[in-house]
């Protein structure tokens, strides 16, 4: 009279033991210890079916419950059938399943089961108690199921297409189908009025504007396309994060399990607010009920910023603390976050007291306890930014890129204070210099080239005192005077030493020699032998405090030292500053005494050389005046027959030059202008 064997529960797929006795049918799960006790008097239907694990039995009771057990062999059918007839007065009927693979059939609701049949043969059955959500669309009903944590693969969603009914029928077949599901399913339904309603709130994930209805047990997001019902038991954490511009706020709700939209899963619900939005809120409850239920956390009438109202209500109903940024301060004044990119999307990284959170696409929350190590890496595209890499203990890596190098010191100090393992800690100083002064330390090719040219000019000055350059034009040899402003009043040079320099050229070519630039007029030459000027009180204090600042701020850059020193100098008291002012005054007196002694040293040789230079310059000017050149003088190629009035003057000038001993074989000097410079 007993049948005791190992079977599987068809609902949970857990192994267990099934016993048939005259009084009842008992099944005990080996994993959970759960016991199903079915009295023999309540058995109404017993069905034998071929299933994927061999054969199975389906038992239905008069109270509407259905039980399924798999794992039977084909030879068990006769013995179980005879036992049911003799003891339960129930016939074990054999029913085949439809295996045609058709997806068009009839949906039948029988108690807690939804059966999909094709030609009166069952294709599959859905226990409605496993349904968590039921959403309707145009001619479509979507069923979502509770997750099975014990199973590696779970069915999450099934969609049914419901064709429109006849026009004379008033009921909508889609709503009728959904109502049958909701009547037996474990679906969250809005019973009663909402505690409060927030209209048209902007959501970043899922994107869109939603009306948020706050119920005592769940949160209802109602949008134009999708609806979500979120039980408060699925809310893990709440975050309230200020934006970098200090004018906007993010309210983040962490969810597990996530809300689903098709194949997309949203583990975070992110609401976006402006600080300027105000709201007057009235709860749909009496004052006594509000006081009794929420114990002073809420009041019936509240007013303030919209983000404050939402966060306050959520905190009271979910009964969880709201996480806000800690003491971290970024490079931007007042900013408690860092601008960066994650997966080619720009967002904000918030260093919190117990982790990091990135908003918004996709949102990422990393707790310190699950972080294995962090790494600071140089940016791949530019030296003005760096990457922050976070590796978890599970082996996952998150890279936040394009972080401004000014944030390096702040972020490094934060990570170091939280005692996170930094992979490249040994290269801290090198990284610091690399990010802070990389532009200054880079090799400047242009600067090196200009230095080399300066050396060439200095070497050329010893052999050639002339600043003139030779310009080769077709059939002419011209001397180029670079000081056009000085030679405008007269022709430059004395004309000596130019014989034999004329070279025929095939085509016009300008050849310039390296020459040293003359110092600007009025600019004082620095005397390298003179005593050095004294330092100010601030510079004296900085030189003595530099090492102390470095030791108190490990990892500080060179530029940050100056900023830090400026802030510390402002905070120094008046008495301490007077001490450094006295030292600066002593240094000034020492400098003045040294300068007085330095000026008393005779400079005869220098003064004499200066006088000779002045005489040489004045002599050159007189020669230029005697030559009588001016801007209006033209060469023979540019003189027309109409311009013969000045021929007499030019002949007189030539005779004057010959009388002074100008060689007869000398090349003719042609005066012209090239750009802003005059050429002889």
Automatic annotation (TrEMBL):
> One GO cellular component from the entry?
FACT complex
Similarity comment: Belongs to the SSRP1 family.
Transcription listed as a keyword: yes
Q: Does the keyword Aminoacyl-tRNA synthetase apply?
A: no
Q: Which GO terms describe its molecular function?
A: DNA binding; histone binding; nucleosome binding
Q: Report what the protein is called.
A: FACT complex subunit SSRP1
According to its UniProt record, where is this protein mainly located?
nucleus
The protein's UniProt keywords, in alphabetical order, are:
Chromosome, DNA damage, DNA repair, DNA replication, DNA-binding, Nucleus, Transcription, Transcription regulation
Span list, region Disordered: 478-538, 602-680
Described purpose of this protein according to its UniProt entry: Component of the FACT complex, a general chromatin factor that acts to reorganize nucleosomes. The FACT complex is involved in multiple processes that require DNA as a template such as mRNA elongation, DNA replication and DNA repair. During transcription elongation the FACT complex acts as a histone chaperone that both destabilizes and restores nucleosomal structure.
Q: Where is the composition biased (Basic residues)?
A: 651-660, 671-680
